[in-house]
């Protein structure tokens, strides 16, 4: 075969070369010795090192037509072109039978023709499809072809210098499978894919100057080429018609200035705005002006001009700024900021806020974390082991154990924290019940079982088993695993332990379970301080640490033997002591946990009839929760659980943390029904800045706003602005309308005894008063129509100003009501806490009783009759026997001490030493009132005073004195003529008896007139007149008492007369002046009037110390006296039982005696020892 023909075979050759070619970018290559490896030849015959046979399919074929002969199964020709074998009959043709290669590489065809590869390789090659680039060989420009199926490099012989020939021979396999020997030369090659020296095969006539294959250092990998292909699905999608976006209904854009002007004139809610525009009235730089027939509001300070929107177009504005595609359904504040620069109408902040709050999409998509969780309700501490246990199921566990277990039943005792775990193959009711029976057989039958609402625990079979064992079942609410948190936490710990233990043998996890349980039982629990094993069995388990200790120390760990009785006694004592300490630790741990949990909690409550959204699993995934609803609340159970009516009448109980109140938007004009009533609050009052957009709005029937708050006129301007800022921040709670507290409901417990009393006869002229009161309470949501069998009569009580108070006579209901023992605040203890305070703010709740809702189950018990029908209260009414206790309980829930405040029913007093502290305490209190849903009456809010009226006394500067207006009222009293008037005088003056020394003795002539045997028309004597005038004189002197300072000692003085006894509690100030803290006195009883004078003095001393015992117990004090009572008491204590009791009663006090007139050192020493 000619050289041309032979060399042409290398146009597309798959070389096999085991030589090391070195070189590359930045380096020189050096060839190494190579020997032809026959074994490698066998392994690579017909296949290159990249897994391709011969020329890679789809790669460079040197111009060969990709045709396959169906007869010989070889590519490059068709059988029909070989006429000599068309008639040949070969049953099974051999592969490649159409051609035979001769020794000189001449290819013969069965048809008789010779096959010249050069004609197809070199002569007819179309290089347009080859990967060609330019490079240099020994500095000469050459054409380089890339062949990814080649494993070496070939160069044209004419371009190689004789000096570059190495004398080596390279065995190369051509594309047709033949192996040839080619000389090797070391040449310099510079291409985009390889730079450096390379050992190349020298070819006589290759298809290109250089054939570059996959040699070391060559970068032949091509970047992936992405080709765009349209799939059938994409084609169908492209053929779909255009779908417009779903947006809110478009606002009214077809209205021009003329129509808007007409709507403005016809809108009654804008009448005052037109009036201000006509008068040119300006409030805080804000005026109403007419421009081109349209009404605008202009703000000179902000340089804004707002169009006043008439009522029919307001909804369109809200749709555009909130619901529209560019509105974004943003919050109230952001929506208002978008609206505020361009539009205005009376009450526009309130309507904007209400519109955003009632947006259905916003309510359904609010994140779960935005809904505040309610404060934690801790479970009761269980005292007896196995009194209550919690159970749960874990699984399915992967992988399944070798014995077929895939679930775990867990049980934890709430008293000892002792756990049990049983592997299960199935979790049907039978398997669970059988596993529980196994646990009960070892530890006993519990009294209560707490579980979730899994079908295994709620089935009829399981309930029957529990009933048979007398076990009470308790279920947690759906999707609220915190109820059974003890078991849930143990499940997590158990799974973590098993995961680590079964790392090497995952399918043996059930065999590791007992070991994991022992490890858990041995460790002391953080909550109890003891291990579950100790609390259950009364001894410490012998665990691995104990075994190791005994092994190393040689100790056997045994104790002295005991008799059975001694062992049982010691075990009982040990268990009792450990359980007591464990309970104390549990209570302390629960309190700390509640404190941490409640930091991010907020009290919430719902009322029967409210609509709510429920957080339930989505339709696509049980692990994804979404708000569904709205559903209706039909019943409240417990503190935080509510029964919700789901679809198709199904009722289910949920925890309030899974619920969100749904605010339904009023339809039509209802949402603007209060527009007329808010005009005065929005137009006449100064408008807020945009940054403080709690616009002051007066709701229906509201007559007082934040502007009615009374500030101390003597406050400095800077302090006045500071405290006004705090009050205005909470303007929404400043109203005379009652709110609704969310944390408590008043219940009437009467044992279901129906009380039905007939109505008292009422004057006909009072019908109008009753109708007005009933209508007012209906409008406020205080009462509702009723169909109750209960009924209590109405009574009308005249007020001092001549008006009538509407009341219900609940005396019949109160007789059968169970008493509530909630303690009532003590005014005396409140006064004591105000000793060192300098700033005071008083807040009075608006109709405090009406801010507490009634329990829906008891509201029918408060019904009353009128001519309009039967009504019942929704809020707690006045007159119920247990109402004060419920109100005191609600005020105690506010935790006013944390806000620097005290309260007596609905009167709240904020007090502090410094001004900054006062601002912080006031802000904290108002925030808490708002969180609880309470409101304060603005006209009774007094802010920033240094002396303030509280509970009928003036408090301030460390002293307490009578209220001036009440003293003036007493001074203006005329001489009483009837017994009733005398009682009123004694009661009014008696309220200030603490300021009048010897009040009881002084009032004896007047109190004698009030006895039953005295006539209704009193006989006014000189003694009565003297007492009457003396009381007036004492009060006119503006007496004051010092508030107690417990850092200073107290002084007690006593006195006795033939009609009464009296005492005074005093303290000395920094300047040495003595001030009274409290006066006390009473009349002598008939038997006490027969005491001797010295006995009466002893009685006065003992009674006064007992009266002031709250201040004197546990403290040192001084008794100032002429010491005769104490001397007599000391001498007579063994001869008179009554005096002996008095002497013993004084022994618990620590005091010394200071004589006032004359002293006897010996007697004083004896008397001081008596104290």
UniProtKB/TrEMBL annotation:
Tree of life domain: Eukaryota
Region (Disordered): 17-57
Biased amino acid composition, Low complexity: 37-51
KW Nuclease (keyword) present: yes
Functional note: The aspartyl protease (PR) mediates the proteolytic cleavages of the Gag and Gag-Pol polyproteins after assembly of the VLP.
Assembly and interaction partners: The protease is a homodimer, whose active site consists of two apposed aspartic acid residues.
Name used for this protein in its record: Gag3-Pol3
